[in-house]
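2024-03-11 09:14:02 INFO worker-7 job=invfold-0412 stage=load source=structure_tokens
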């Protein structure tokens, strides 16, 4: 699970980039930005198909924002532990 960085001049993320589809699939701006892996043997992640609306800039669906938030809290906790 990860959130791809924007690295294209059009400001949109790309999903499912691989040797057979080097252009990938352009971000759907109505959907959550998280990458999800299919349950089959294709090892190609695609964009989460749930509607976005949660988190910073409302980029995540409810489920992925919950996971992302938990991750950020863990990182913040680790930071405090270092000081
Ligand atoms: Zn999602």
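2024-03-11 09:14:09 INFO worker-7 stage=emit residues=83
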């Amino acid at each position: 699970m990860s959130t791809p960085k924007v690295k294209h001049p059009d400001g949109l993320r790309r999903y499912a980039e691989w040797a057979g589809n080097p252009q990938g699939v352009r971000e759907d701006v109505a959907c959550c930005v998280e990458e999800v892996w299919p349950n089959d043997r294709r090892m190609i992640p695609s964009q989460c198909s749930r509607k976005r609306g949660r988190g910073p800039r409302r980029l995540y669906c409810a489920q992925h924002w919950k996971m992302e938030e938990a991750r950020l809290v863990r990182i913040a906790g680790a930071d405090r532990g270092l000081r």
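2024-03-11 09:14:09 INFO worker-7 stage=report msg="Residues 32, 34, 48, 50, 60-61, 63-64 surround zinc ion (CB under 6 Å)."
2024-03-11 09:14:10 INFO worker-7 job finished
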